[in-house]
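Is this the right way to post structure tokens for a design question? Let me know if I should format differently. Anyway, here goes:
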């Protein structure tokens, strides 16, 4: 079950009043007010509100476009693959940037990661890919590891594919194996890096349904970085739209679909032209073809 304080905080960012939260959770208003004061909810900046929305049961981060060769993602900061230059990155109240190596490794073991395109070990079988984190980070006996791996594979519908190699399965199946590996250690937070990229419509639908179902069944927090509006909006509780180095908009999928912001509307509707121009900035076409100099 999601702790009451976590549920209260999630409702607060959705615009609920303290009285409404108190009635919804059957919790004294004074307690809710104490949580708000102690955690500084009322003084939060827009960025902090977006970060705090991660405590909801599901959150989707929608990146707008690649402007450089490296597509920076917020999950790089959460896992401390990149050090934050300003501010803090908190996980369960602990500042990740202040941890030593041992503390960081322990913190990462509480997180699951689904890499873009799966990132399976090509020389390991499906079974051994899922067993890898269990063998690396626990001292469990092999019989128990076997049972746990088969449970995780069964959750993604691939228990029968345990002995296959990555080269013998489809892209959609690879993504599901990677998801089973991501939940092998029963993480509290699961991060998804472009989970729908390169998938056919059937595989994309299966992946989206699994993400939502596992999120609810395990009671975890999930963060998805995706450019796929339809699939992401169909399963997300909260969406943060990142553009131009900041937060362009955030809210429920329904709220973003109704947004009047031209940039948000262009992204959601996949319009070819708008604030993000179709033509890259260039000299007038007549100048390039020398038409202006002719008589």
């Amino acid at each position: 079950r999601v702790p009451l304080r976590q549920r209260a905080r999630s409702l607060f960012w959705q615009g609920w009043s303290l009285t409404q939260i108190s009635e919804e959770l059957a919790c004294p208003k004074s307690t809710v007010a104490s949580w708000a004061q102690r955690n500084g909810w009322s003084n939060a900046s827009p960025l902090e509100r977006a970060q705090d929305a991660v405590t909801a049961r599901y959150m989707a981060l929608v990146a707008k476009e690649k402007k450089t060769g490296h597509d920076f993602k917020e999950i790089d900061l959460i896992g401390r693959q990149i050090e934050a230059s300003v501010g803090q990155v908190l996980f369960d109240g602990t500042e990740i940037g202040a941890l030593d190596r041992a503390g960081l490794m322990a913190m990462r073991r509480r997180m699951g990661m689904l890499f873009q395109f799966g990132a399976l070990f090509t020389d390991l079988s499906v079974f051994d890919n899922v067993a890898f984190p269990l063998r690396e980070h626990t001292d469990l006996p092999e019989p128990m590891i076997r049972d746990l791996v088969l449970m995780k594979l069964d959750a993604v519908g691939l228990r029968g594919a345990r002995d296959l190699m990555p080269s013998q399965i489809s892209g959609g199946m690879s993504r599901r194996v990677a998801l089973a590996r991501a939940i092998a250690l029963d993480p509290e937070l699961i991060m998804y890096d472009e989970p729908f990229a390169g998938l056919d419509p059937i595989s994309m639908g299966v992946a989206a349904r699994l993400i939502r179902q596992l999120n609810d069944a395990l009671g975890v927090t999930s963060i998805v970085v995706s450019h796929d509006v339809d699939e992401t909006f169909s399963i997300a509780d909260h969406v943060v739209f990142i553009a131009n180095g900041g937060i362009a908009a955030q809210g429920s999928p329904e709220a973003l679909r109704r947004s009047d912001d031209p940039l948000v509307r262009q992204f959601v509707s996949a319009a070819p032209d708008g604030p993000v121009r179709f033509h890259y900035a260039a000299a007038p076409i007549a100048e390039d073809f020398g038409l202006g100099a002719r008589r």
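Format looks fine. Someone answered above. Worth noting: The first strand starts at residue 59 and ends at 63. Confidence is low (pLDDT under 50) at residues 50-60, 62-70.
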